[in-house]
Fold this protein.
Amino acid sequence: MADNKTTSTVTMDDGVRLNVKILGQDSAGSKPLLISLHGAPGLSTLAEPEASFGYLANLYRVLVFDARGSGASDKIGPFTHDRWIEDIEILRKWAGAETFILAGASYGGFIALDYAIKHGDRLQGLILRDTWANGKVGPMNALANILTSNRVKVDVARQVRLWSGTSLNDQDHAEGVQEILPIFTPPPEIVPPKEQNESTEFQGSVEFYSATQNAAFSENMPRFDVRHRLKEIKTPTLVIVGRHDYIAPVACSEEIANAIPNARLEIFELSGHSPPSDEPEKFERILSSFLKSEI
């Protein structure tokens, strides 16, 4: 891994192969490691965190990867938080780091929170973007905001299937996501569409895999509730959220930031679900300030 940007296939302990990219790789491996997790299992890919965190490659080794069940990685389960956390641990060891900075966006934030509670001693810093701590209420709030929005016209039954993890097949999953795309961006009265950037959530080659999404929302979400354990996270934490995020509203990030002892909350007033693409200059400034002052 001597090149500045390397792409590798890394095999997990159960034989599943993950598509992994390291940005800013140095031959000595002397730079600190930052691992960033994408959101939207079964849809999003490493293109999202690469676009958001790639600018740090001169200071960090930025490791991004397609989680199992997403992108170019094997579509082999189990698609559970415990298994995804173990995959992170294997990648950390593969990269040769005892400690690192972990970033998680949207669904990746759920995994990051669970990792921080389980392996907090491994973390130098934690970065959470547009996520929630209560998997029972979070999807219901997102669905309610979608169904009451005047920005999208949706098939109600299909949205219920999407957010309950019961999509019929890959096409049903794809149609469910595609019909709600406008709600991921800031409203037009805040930022005119012609001035909006493509959401990092859907950058790269998009491939819809409903089995991963279904497992995430039908099996994982009902069990995910870390609110009472947030106080256990001692690592410096940056919590980022868009003011106009209707998937993981500001109140969700406020709850997380208020409960983690050493957390800093930053609300992006002109952003929806993706501040890195909605307000990229501010995102880079806030992130760099946090890394410089807290890590």
